[in-house]
């Protein structure tokens, strides 16, 4: 049996049957359910983001054995070609940031796809910049192939098919040839 509630309406003196009281209770229940749903969705999104970050950290930290070590060296070479390793580098007329010269569009793509919350400021932190680049390249199926990685990074999703990205790949390739056999990953 429901407890009786006194109606708050001046015109209505009924108990527990007032439309105003019932509507307010109904709205409160709907708001509570919506809030709970949003909390669950946020938890799923956070779990997905954490999983992606753990995988990327493991890949970068252990030389990407899943790709035969073919991620760490190209990323290091791209860092040298893009900025000379300068984490505070800003180029392309103020549109590219950090060691990998990350553009806002790359961050937007990664955030939309992976549910992350990267900003351009994150591009100035080398380990985070490498995570952003790795996520972007994996979105475009460029991981594990150094030439494809470099060309997609330079020319966007279709970069590996653009002739204009060949000179960039040649520069990255020359830098890779000069790198020692084991290149320490960023942030170690």
Characterization of this structure:
This protein is mainly alpha-helical. The protein has a single domain, classed as Lysozyme. 55% of the residues lie in helices and 3% in strands. The chain has six helices and three strands; from the N terminus they run H-H-E-E-E-H-H-H-H. The protein has helices at 19-61, 72-83, 104-114, 126-139, 146-155, 166-178, and strands spanning 90-91, 96-97, 102-103. It has a three-stranded antiparallel sheet. Strand 1 (90-91) and strand 2 form a beta hairpin. Helix 3 crosses helix 4. The chain is elongated, with a radius of gyration of 26 Å. The termini are far apart. The model is unreliable at 60-68 (pLDDT under 50).
Quick summary:
By secondary structure, this protein is mainly α. The protein has helices at residues 19-61, 72-83, 104-114, 126-139, 146-155, 166-178; strands spanning 90-91, 96-97, 102-103.
Give the class from helix and strand content and strand pairing. Answer: mainly alpha
End-to-end separation in angstroms reads: 65 Å
The total beta strand count reads 3
Give the fraction of residues assigned to helices. 40-55%
CATH architecture: Orthogonal Bundle
Order of helices and strands: HHEEEHHHH
What fraction of residues sit in β-strands? under 5%
Report the total helices: 6
């Amino acid at each position: 049996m429901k407890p009786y509630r006194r109606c708050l309406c001046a015109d209505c003196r009924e108990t527990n049957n007032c439309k105003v009281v019932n509507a307010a209770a109904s709205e409160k229940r709907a708001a509570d359910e919506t809030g709970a749903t949003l909390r669950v969705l946020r938890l799923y999104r956070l779990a997905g983001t954490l999983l992606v970050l753990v995988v990327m950290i493991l890949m970068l930290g252990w030389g990407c054995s899943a790709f035969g070590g073919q991620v760490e060296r190209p990323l290091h070479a791209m860092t040298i070609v893009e900025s000379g390793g300068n984490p505070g580098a800003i180029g392309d007329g103020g549109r590219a940031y950090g060691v990998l010269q990350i553009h806002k569009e790359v961050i937007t793509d990664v955030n939309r796809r992976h549910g992350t919350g990267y900003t351009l400021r994150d591009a100035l932190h080398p380990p985070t910049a490498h995570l952003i680049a790795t996520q972007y390249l994996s979105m475009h199926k460029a991981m594990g192939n150094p030439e494809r990685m470099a060309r997609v990074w330079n020319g966007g999703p279709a970069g590996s098919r653009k002739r204009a990205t060949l000179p960039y790949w040649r520069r990255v390739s020359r830098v890779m040839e000069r790198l020692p056999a084991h290149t320490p990953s960023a942030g170690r």
